[in-house]
Design goal:
The protein has helices spanning about 1-20, 20-60, 65-80, 90-115, 120, 125-160, 165-170, 180-185. By secondary structure, it is mostly helical. Helix 2 runs antiparallel to helix 3 (about 65-80), helix 2 runs antiparallel to helix 6 and helix 3 (about 65-80) runs antiparallel to helix 4. The protein starts with a helix and ends in a 14-residue tail after the last helix.
Protein backbone atom coordinates (compact mmCIF):
# COMPACT_ATOMS: atom_id res chain seq x y z
CA UNK A 1 0.00 0.00 0.00
CA UNK A 2 2.82 2.39 0.93
CA UNK A 3 4.63 1.67 -2.32
CA UNK A 4 1.45 2.35 -4.26
CA UNK A 5 0.94 5.67 -2.44
CA UNK A 6 4.56 6.63 -3.09
CA UNK A 7 4.17 5.80 -6.77
CA UNK A 8 0.98 7.87 -7.01
CA UNK A 9 2.63 10.73 -5.13
CA UNK A 10 5.66 10.58 -7.41
CA UNK A 11 3.47 10.63 -10.52
CA UNK A 12 1.50 13.56 -9.12
CA UNK A 13 4.70 15.49 -8.30
CA UNK A 14 6.12 14.78 -11.76
CA UNK A 15 2.95 15.99 -13.45
CA UNK A 16 2.87 19.06 -11.20
CA UNK A 17 6.46 20.00 -11.93
CA UNK A 18 6.02 19.36 -15.66
CA UNK A 19 2.88 21.47 -15.78
CA UNK A 20 4.52 24.30 -13.88
CA UNK A 21 7.41 24.66 -16.32
CA UNK A 22 10.08 22.76 -14.40
CA UNK A 23 11.00 20.56 -17.35
CA UNK A 24 11.01 23.55 -19.71
CA UNK A 25 13.30 25.46 -17.34
CA UNK A 26 15.68 22.51 -17.23
CA UNK A 27 15.77 21.97 -20.98
CA UNK A 28 16.13 25.66 -21.89
CA UNK A 29 18.83 26.09 -19.25
CA UNK A 30 20.77 23.27 -20.90
CA UNK A 31 20.24 24.87 -24.32
CA UNK A 32 21.70 28.11 -22.96
CA UNK A 33 24.76 26.32 -21.59
CA UNK A 34 25.33 24.54 -24.90
CA UNK A 35 24.75 27.76 -26.86
CA UNK A 36 27.14 29.73 -24.69
CA UNK A 37 29.82 27.04 -24.96
CA UNK A 38 29.62 27.36 -28.75
CA UNK A 39 29.83 31.17 -28.56
CA UNK A 40 32.97 30.86 -26.42
CA UNK A 41 34.40 28.24 -28.77
CA UNK A 42 34.06 30.55 -31.77
CA UNK A 43 35.43 33.58 -29.91
CA UNK A 44 38.43 31.47 -28.89
CA UNK A 45 38.90 30.39 -32.48
CA UNK A 46 39.05 34.07 -33.47
CA UNK A 47 41.50 34.89 -30.68
CA UNK A 48 43.75 32.03 -31.83
CA UNK A 49 43.91 33.54 -35.32
CA UNK A 50 45.02 36.97 -34.07
CA UNK A 51 48.74 36.28 -33.39
CA UNK A 52 49.22 34.82 -36.87
CA UNK A 53 47.35 37.71 -38.48
CA UNK A 54 49.41 40.27 -36.57
CA UNK A 55 52.68 38.56 -37.49
CA UNK A 56 51.81 38.43 -41.19
CA UNK A 57 50.68 42.07 -41.25
CA UNK A 58 53.78 43.09 -39.28
CA UNK A 59 55.94 41.49 -41.97
CA UNK A 60 54.53 43.87 -44.60
CA UNK A 61 53.49 46.87 -42.48
CA UNK A 62 55.77 47.05 -39.46
CA UNK A 63 55.29 50.82 -39.33
CA UNK A 64 51.62 50.38 -38.36
CA UNK A 65 52.66 49.90 -34.74
CA UNK A 66 49.64 51.53 -33.12
CA UNK A 67 47.17 49.42 -35.07
CA UNK A 68 49.05 46.18 -34.42
CA UNK A 69 49.44 47.05 -30.74
CA UNK A 70 45.72 47.76 -30.53
CA UNK A 71 44.88 44.27 -31.79
CA UNK A 72 47.39 42.65 -29.46
CA UNK A 73 46.09 44.56 -26.45
CA UNK A 74 42.47 43.76 -27.33
CA UNK A 75 43.33 40.07 -27.51
CA UNK A 76 45.13 40.26 -24.15
CA UNK A 77 42.07 41.91 -22.59
CA UNK A 78 39.80 39.19 -23.93
CA UNK A 79 42.19 36.54 -22.61
CA UNK A 80 42.30 38.11 -19.14
CA UNK A 81 38.58 37.53 -18.58
CA UNK A 82 37.74 34.11 -17.17
CA UNK A 83 34.95 33.03 -19.51
CA UNK A 84 33.60 30.30 -17.26
CA UNK A 85 30.08 28.88 -17.78
CA UNK A 86 28.98 30.80 -14.64
CA UNK A 87 29.58 34.04 -16.56
CA UNK A 88 26.07 33.81 -18.04
CA UNK A 89 24.60 34.13 -14.54
CA UNK A 90 26.47 37.35 -13.74
CA UNK A 91 25.16 40.34 -15.69
CA UNK A 92 28.16 42.59 -14.93
CA UNK A 93 30.76 39.94 -15.81
CA UNK A 94 28.78 39.10 -18.96
CA UNK A 95 28.72 42.77 -20.02
CA UNK A 96 32.46 43.09 -19.37
CA UNK A 97 33.20 40.03 -21.50
CA UNK A 98 31.00 41.23 -24.37
CA UNK A 99 32.57 44.71 -24.23
CA UNK A 100 36.03 43.14 -24.52
CA UNK A 101 34.89 41.14 -27.55
CA UNK A 102 33.55 44.37 -29.05
CA UNK A 103 36.97 45.98 -28.62
CA UNK A 104 38.52 42.99 -30.35
CA UNK A 105 36.14 43.38 -33.30
CA UNK A 106 36.96 47.10 -33.57
CA UNK A 107 40.72 46.49 -33.37
CA UNK A 108 40.54 43.82 -36.08
CA UNK A 109 38.43 46.11 -38.27
CA UNK A 110 41.06 48.89 -37.95
CA UNK A 111 43.87 46.48 -38.82
CA UNK A 112 42.05 45.11 -41.84
CA UNK A 113 41.33 48.63 -43.04
CA UNK A 114 45.06 49.42 -42.92
CA UNK A 115 45.75 46.35 -45.07
CA UNK A 116 44.07 48.14 -47.98
CA UNK A 117 47.22 50.27 -48.30
CA UNK A 118 49.46 47.22 -48.82
CA UNK A 119 48.74 45.41 -52.13
CA UNK A 120 51.58 42.92 -51.57
CA UNK A 121 50.09 41.90 -48.22
CA UNK A 122 46.64 41.52 -49.74
CA UNK A 123 48.05 39.13 -52.35
CA UNK A 124 50.12 37.11 -49.84
CA UNK A 125 48.92 33.48 -49.77
CA UNK A 126 49.30 33.05 -46.01
CA UNK A 127 47.42 36.25 -45.31
CA UNK A 128 44.60 35.33 -47.68
CA UNK A 129 44.25 31.96 -45.97
CA UNK A 130 44.07 33.63 -42.55
CA UNK A 131 41.59 36.16 -43.94
CA UNK A 132 39.34 33.31 -45.14
CA UNK A 133 39.56 31.63 -41.72
CA UNK A 134 38.68 34.88 -39.98
CA UNK A 135 35.71 35.49 -42.24
CA UNK A 136 34.42 31.96 -41.60
CA UNK A 137 34.91 32.38 -37.85
CA UNK A 138 33.07 35.70 -37.79
CA UNK A 139 30.14 34.05 -39.56
CA UNK A 140 30.15 31.19 -37.05
CA UNK A 141 30.24 33.69 -34.18
CA UNK A 142 27.14 35.38 -35.57
CA UNK A 143 25.28 32.08 -35.88
CA UNK A 144 26.32 30.90 -32.41
CA UNK A 145 25.42 34.24 -30.85
CA UNK A 146 21.97 34.23 -32.46
CA UNK A 147 21.29 30.70 -31.19
CA UNK A 148 22.32 31.77 -27.70
CA UNK A 149 20.04 34.82 -27.85
CA UNK A 150 17.09 32.64 -28.87
CA UNK A 151 17.77 30.13 -26.08
CA UNK A 152 18.00 32.91 -23.48
CA UNK A 153 14.80 34.50 -24.76
CA UNK A 154 12.87 31.23 -24.46
CA UNK A 155 14.29 30.57 -20.99
CA UNK A 156 13.64 34.11 -19.71
CA UNK A 157 10.03 34.02 -20.95
CA UNK A 158 9.51 30.82 -18.94
CA UNK A 159 11.13 32.33 -15.84
CA UNK A 160 8.87 35.38 -16.03
CA UNK A 161 5.59 33.69 -17.05
CA UNK A 162 2.91 32.41 -14.68
CA UNK A 163 2.81 29.72 -13.31
CA UNK A 164 6.34 28.72 -14.31
CA UNK A 165 7.67 31.83 -12.54
CA UNK A 166 6.60 30.23 -9.24
CA UNK A 167 8.56 27.10 -10.09
CA UNK A 168 11.54 29.25 -11.11
CA UNK A 169 11.48 31.06 -7.74
CA UNK A 170 11.12 27.78 -5.85
CA UNK A 171 14.14 26.19 -7.56
CA UNK A 172 16.30 29.31 -7.91
CA UNK A 173 16.05 29.82 -11.68
CA UNK A 174 16.79 33.47 -12.47
CA UNK A 175 16.69 35.60 -15.62
CA UNK A 176 19.93 35.34 -17.60
CA UNK A 177 21.64 38.21 -19.42
CA UNK A 178 21.68 38.38 -23.19
CA UNK A 179 23.23 40.67 -25.79
CA UNK A 180 21.80 44.18 -25.46
CA UNK A 181 21.25 46.63 -28.31
CA UNK A 182 24.45 48.47 -27.35
CA UNK A 183 26.83 45.52 -27.24
CA UNK A 184 25.07 43.81 -30.15
CA UNK A 185 25.80 46.89 -32.26
CA UNK A 186 29.44 46.80 -31.17
CA UNK A 187 30.06 43.19 -32.16
CA UNK A 188 27.33 42.14 -34.59
CA UNK A 189 29.06 43.51 -37.69
CA UNK A 190 32.04 41.30 -38.54
CA UNK A 191 35.25 43.02 -39.64
CA UNK A 192 35.39 43.49 -43.39
CA UNK A 193 37.76 40.87 -44.75
CA UNK A 194 37.11 41.07 -48.50
CA UNK A 195 40.32 42.14 -50.20
CA UNK A 196 39.33 41.22 -53.73
CA UNK A 197 38.91 44.86 -54.76
CA UNK A 198 42.05 46.57 -56.10
CA UNK A 199 43.87 48.94 -53.78
CA UNK A 200 43.26 52.63 -54.20
CA UNK A 201 46.18 54.49 -55.82
Amino acid sequence: MRNRLRAVGLLFLTALLGGCGYNTLQSTDEQIKAGWAEVLNQYQRRADLVPNLVNVVKGFAAQEKDVLLGVTQARAKVGSIQAMPELINDEQAFAKFIAAQGEMSSALARMLLVVENYPQLKSDTVFRDLQAQLEGTENRITVARNRYIQAVQEYNVTVRSFPSNLTAMMFGFKVKPSFTVENEKAIATPPKVDFSAPAKP
